[in-house]
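Annotated sample (chain length 339).
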Amino acid sequence: MSSTPVTQDPITTLLTTYNELNSPLIDELDEEPSPLEFMRYVAQNRPFVVRGGASGWEACKRWNVARLKSVMEGMSVNVAVTPKGNADSPTKNEKGEMVFVKPYEEEQLFSDFIEFVSNQEKTEIIDGEIRYAQTQNDNLRNEYSVLFKEVQKDIPWARIALNQTPEAINFWLGNSHTTTSLHKDPYENIYVTITGTKTFTLLPPIAFPFIRETLLTPASYSRSTNGKLVMIVEEGERVPVALWDPDLEKDRAERHVGPYEEEAKRMQMKVEVGKGDMLYLPALWYHKVGQIGDEEGICIAVNYWHDMEFSGSFYPLTGLVRSVVLSAKGKEENKSGER
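Output written by the structure step:
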């Protein structure tokens, strides 16, 4: 008996099937889940937001510019500085070549840093640089340890369900001029907005076929002798970076995702995470993050990273999708070169 011939690209079938089985709308909960309820979302690798889940935290009640300056008085912190709020992102250099650029990092007095961020938002004067607190090294339990007592030491339903304490707890502070480009992390992430609003564009791990992963030369910003930021191209291995910008509308060609554009549109989730809201961002989900300052011009968040589980079939299957797509891309490029 002859088998039925395959007429549809299997990647298209995969994306279509996912979209048919999964809603593009994020689940919104009115109260924190139980460990069992949370584990169901982990098993499905699906995000949710808890509206007001952290509204009772001391941080949500008390953190503002004056209080933070008082608590952090005299302390210096690591600050990421970029000309356009584009830290850790694909950016064109002076030659028009796309590179992966990291921020210039420097120590600044916290009081000076938060004043700069606040005033910049309120005056809308960019003045050549954007500053952001973004060290992803457990900084809330180290660099910002004096503030740690005003947030939860962990998220109980996540700690119990995952049977582990957070690998890292991070503190983020910036204004609306900072954007985090599309990327993914190997963590189960509980993200809590303390003040202001975070805006997320989310895509599941199987979105790899259209995120346009490309190997880019590494670069970083540095301060020149006149204090201005300049980009320095670095030596070293090229970095795999997602080039697709889900919010770029001005140039369809730059946004192009090949035959998967319709499925890409259907797959996106957009969610605003306001003051006191908690977002569960599952492991390996692609996310682009923007922010909106509060009445003082600042946006603050903390997040709890738990190591993802690599055993089982989920991680190998996401790797399979990536390998299949890259293999097909390589064959297509070889054909083009032979013409």
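Annotation: The CA atoms of residues 49 and 279 lie 4 Å apart.
Annotation: The chain has a mean pLDDT of 92.
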